[in-house]
Specification:
Keywords: Oxidoreductase. The chain is an alpha/beta fold. It has helices at about 15-30, 60-75, 100-125, 155-175, 190-200, 210-220, 230-240; strands at about 10, 30-35, 55, 80-85, 135-140, 180-185, 250-255. Strand 4 (about 80-85), helix 3 (about 100-125) and strand 5 (about 135-140) form a beta-alpha-beta unit. The protein is globular and about 50 Å long.
């Protein structure tokens, strides 16, 4: 029997690079998966049928969060797994960041996590009949919530907020049988990473990822960048009954990058 057989999962940012990898892994493990995103193509701009139930969702809109969870309730009656993977990056110092952009990135990365979780909780409680093996929420922080990349001030601030929110949610809802954790990825080859290295604030001088891939890999103790599937593997474990005792933690997955002192230089 597969690890998520009979489970119902909801993934925001489910049509992005990491989101799609999570959805694919969940489906392979027997889950019914709702992939929520702004559009069916998502950041990969591909509408291939991947076996998920697509849900149009702007995570900043409360009415849409309510509608999304109403649909899950009508079609499934419960929810076992919530993954808050939707997020954006703004590549500026605080001096270069407009108030509009500051509010936008917090609305997506932090408020979006809050709204989706808020309206998912009643459905998650319906799955919390066996508390040690109850439902799971997996939020997305970042190693940038602990240390900082240049030119990502607002992004770093949002991820620090998600880390604190994750701990608070775990404390509040653990007694109800709901586990809450956050994954904190490092460099993962996604459209967001490629955009970062093409930007002015990355320290790569606007170079393409292909031109800087070798030094990016070399700065990691493991000498490699992450792949979306690497993140999906950890999400799967945190979502499964195998992680029954895991809650309130920030799981850094960065190839050892944040364990060392030296910084990347191009």
């Amino acid at each position: 029997m597969t690890r998520l057989s009979g489970k119902i999962a909801f993934v925001t940012g489910g049509r992005g690079g990491i989101g799609r990898a999570i959805c694919a892994r969940f489906i392979a493990e027997g889950a019914t998966v709702y992939a929520a995103d702004i559009s069916p193509g998502g950041s990969l701009e591909s509408e291939d049928d991947d076996g998920t139930h697509f849900v149009p969702l702007d995570v900043t809109q409360e009415s849409q969060a309510i509608s999304a969870m109403t649909r899950v309730e009508q079609e499934q009656g419960k929810l076992d797994i919530l993954v808050n993977a939707a997020g954006i990056e703004i590549e500026h110092t605080i001096e270069e960041t407009s108030l509009e952009d500051w509010n936008r990135i917090f609305a997506i990365n932090v408020t979006g996590t809050f709204l989706t979780a808020k309206y998912a909780l009643p459905l998650l409680r319906k799955s919390a009949t066996d508390r040690p093996l109850g439902p799971s929420i997996v939020n997305f922080g970042s190693y940038d919530g602990f240390i900082a990349d240049p030119g990502l001030a607002a992004y770093c601030a949002t991820k620090g907020a998600v880390h604190a929110l994750t701990r608070a949610m775990a404390c509040d809802h653990g007694p109800e049988g709901i586990r809450v954790n956050a994954i904190c990825p490092g460099y993962v080859d996604t459209p967001m990473l490629r955009s970062f290295f093409g930007g002015a604030g990355s320290g790569a001088g606007g170079a393409s990822l292909e031109n800087v891939l070798a030094p990016v890999k070399d700065v990691h103790p493991t000498r490699t960048c992450g792949k979306p599937e690497d993140i999906a593997n950890l999400v799967l474990w945190l979502a499964s009954d195998e992680a029954r005792y895991a809650s309130g933690q920030l799981w850094v997955l960065d190839g050892g990058l944040s364990a060392q002192v030296q910084q990347m230089r191009f």
